[in-house]
Structure formats: structure tokens, C-alpha cells
Amino acid sequence: MISKDVASSGKHLKPHSIQILSILRLLSVDRGDIGVEKHLAQILTGQGKSLVLGLSAALLALFNHDIVVVCYSEYLATRDFNDFKDSFTSVGHILSFPRNSQTLLDREIALLSYTGGDLHGGIEIRSTDVKEGFVSKCSYALLKCWCRYINKLPLNDDWIRSFRLDSDGNIKHKDDFGVFRNQIRGYQNSFIYFKLRNNNFVQSSNGLNNFGYLNLSIASYSYSRIPEKFPLILGVTGTLSELTAYEKNVIENHYNISSSSIMPSFFGISNLKYDPIHDFQCHKSSIQWRHAIFSRINAVINAQRAVIVFFDSESEIADFRKDFQSQLDRLNEITINTEAKIRDRYIAEAGLSRTVTLATPEMGRGVDYKSSLSVEKNGGIHVIQTFFSMDVKEETQIKGRTARKDNRGSYELIVCQIHLLKLKLTTSYDRVDTISYKHLLHSRKDQTITNSSTTTVKLYNANETHEKCIKFYRNMGINV
């Protein structure tokens, strides 16, 4: 029997029983009273979270609700939009972002991803209309103070690489999700723009300023307060059972989501091959670490399989490619910033025999990598994670890129001690041969507890500032 998830099998998909039961649970059909209560459900990797949300959204829309489907990933949101566009149109609705939304369907529990990172944002004005010449002169004067420091930094420096010039020549900055956007980082944009551009500077293009602007912070708001605007929150995720104590407390006591479901796998026991003892390596230096990764890649492709290697950043991918690109025949790279058509092609090719795909963590969530029939026969797609995730949910998602549904697949973890030291997961006194996966699990757990206390303080301060800004605007007669 061939899995429905294997590429070229040509099967037409339809909802299976677990997906239908998930929808019924989300809509509180099993409750005796009237109405739908807030609910989160765990649906395992590759078993139809998008389908469950799409069908739930369509059903609620038929009852005259406005629906907002939220996803942390622009790539996944665009993919699902295109997949379900015809279905929504056929019932008279199109996926959109209405102003007065009554229902929030949250694909990956976005409210938790916010509390794990930045808790507040700001609205800034960039002005070149007032005293334009003065502002421009200020930018050039500030540049002189910074140029010596910036010029000493190589172009492959991680900070420099977090900026990029787009096709129109505008400076972009990488956000927390790895996407390059028109994101202002104080006046750093100007300094990096001059370094990357080198000459022929253009102050403004398509209404966007590269330099010569003035930042005025006029408001600060807390992302954690956004879900409070929705009377109903329904969500699906693949990692509900792995929430930390802090995250569970936020869900239950702050957002008042007390109902949840852990849905069983439609395909039974997972076929993933992974042993945390034998499929774990730790190496002392970056050179040894990269050579170990290359060695394992060779072993996998020589077995006529496909391998996906997840690196922590694009700079790590660049360093690996520099050393080994000439020695690998079928080598592709996928990041959140890869051009859409190329990204889709590389995703489709990732499961072909002897194909090596290098990817960033963002491409380890929700992306369907399908193995070819020959790769499946030889053991399925092999996944190598080259860094230790500080969030266990990220690790689970990356593992879920292989052995999806009833497919075969394997996973291993190859880490570098230098990286672990930076994350404070190990100390300089730890010998590399004593560092085990179990050791890192204990370190991660301890850090999670510490970070939860810090996050609580940040959340309190962010919400306090948020309330002051709301009050300020209301006193001005502005409804927010």
C-alpha cells in the first residue's frame, strides 16, 4: 500500500474521520448548551490542520460570521489562501481581513509565538517633508561617526546580513520570522544602506526612505492584547501537548481558553526512525561540525535517498555551501526569502533521490516535503537538524518534515559546542564527549523556567504602556 502523501501517487484528497471529528470538537458540537466556546486542538504534523481550518472557516461564514484566519508564516498563509480560494468563492465568501471580525481561527497559536518574543511594537513616523535638508544632513553627519565601525565589519557579518537591498534598491531588514521587510531599526537602516549600496545613493524609492528620515515614536502597543478583541478563538497546532507551564497559564488564565483536544493519528504509529542516543552528535569546532554534516549527507544520498538539512540561519548555510557546494550534485537552498516560484520548485524536488536541500528553521514548519516512490522505498526523506532548538515545538516541527502520515523517514541532530556555549546550554568546562541530548534537554528546561519569569515582567510593562496609549488616543476622541 502506497501512502497518499508520496509524490506522483495521484490520489484525490478528501477529509478523513479525524479531521471531521476535529471540526466537530472545535465547534462544540458535543456540548449540550448553545454556542461555541474557545477551543484549541492538536492535529499532528501532515494530518490536515489547514483543511480543518478551511472547512471550519467556511462553515462559520455561512452563519454570517466574519472570519480571520491567522498564521505566523506568510508563505503558509499564501499557500492556504490559494488552495481554498475557490471553495470560499463558491459559498459566496473570499478569504480577507475584515475590520470588525468576530472569530479568530489561529493556525499555529500565534498568541503564543508573540509571548515568546517581542511583546510590544511601535508606530513610527518617518519624515522628510519637514526640514528635509536638515534631516538629510543629520543622516550624513551620523554616518561619519559610524562609518569607521561599519566599514570594519565584513559583508558576511550576521548583523550586516540581517539587512538587504531589494530589486528596487530599497533597504530591508529581516524580522523575527526571517522575512525581509521595510522594517526601521532606528537609523541603522541608513548606515547599512550606504555600506551595501557603496555609491549612487537614492534617498527615496516607491515612497520608501533609505536615509534622510526622522523617526518619531508616537505609540507603543502590546501584541499580546490583540487576541482579546475577538470573542471567539479556535486554534489548531501540532504541538499543543508540548506547551510550557507558562504558556498553558497564559492560554487558560489570560485568554480564557479552557477547552482543548488531543486528536489521535489517522495513520497509527509514526514510522520515524530516531534514537536520541545514536542519532546525536556534538562537535567541538565549526569545521568538525560542518564536516560531520557533509559526511552524513554523503551517506544518505549514497543510499539513494533525499536529505533536508536545517541550519539556524542563512549565514550558516552560506558557510556550508562555500566549503562543500562543489562536491554535491543536486544542492538546493530554501529560505523564507527565496523567490516564490523557485521555492515551490525546490520544495517539490526535495524528496527526489540524491537531492540535498538546505533550509532555515522557518521552512521546517508546515511545509509539505513529499518523497518520491524510489526514495520512499529506500527509507524516505532523512532530516538533519544542525542546531539545538530552544523551543521544543520548533524541534518537533522540524522532525515532522519527514515520516509524514504513514510514510517512512529518519531524523538526526548534529550540533556544535561553540553554538551551545552561546546559548548557555553548556559551559566551557564541559567536555564535548560528555554532552548528550539528555544533557541539553535539562539545560533547555532550566532556561525555559528562567525565561518565563523574564517574559512575565516584560509582558506586564508592555501591557501597562499599551493601556496608556489607548487612554491617550481615546482622550483625543480616536477610537482604537
From TrEMBL:
InterPro entries for this protein: P-loop_NTPase, SecA, SecA_DEAD
Start and end residues of each SecA DEAD-like N-terminal domain: 13-97
Organism name: Aedes albopictus (Asian tiger mosquito)
Gene3D superfamilies associated with the record: P-loop containing nucleotide triphosphate hydrolases
Identification of the protein by name: SecA DEAD-like N-terminal domain-containing protein
SUPFAM superfamilies per the UniProt record, alphabetical: P-loop containing nucleoside triphosphate hydrolases
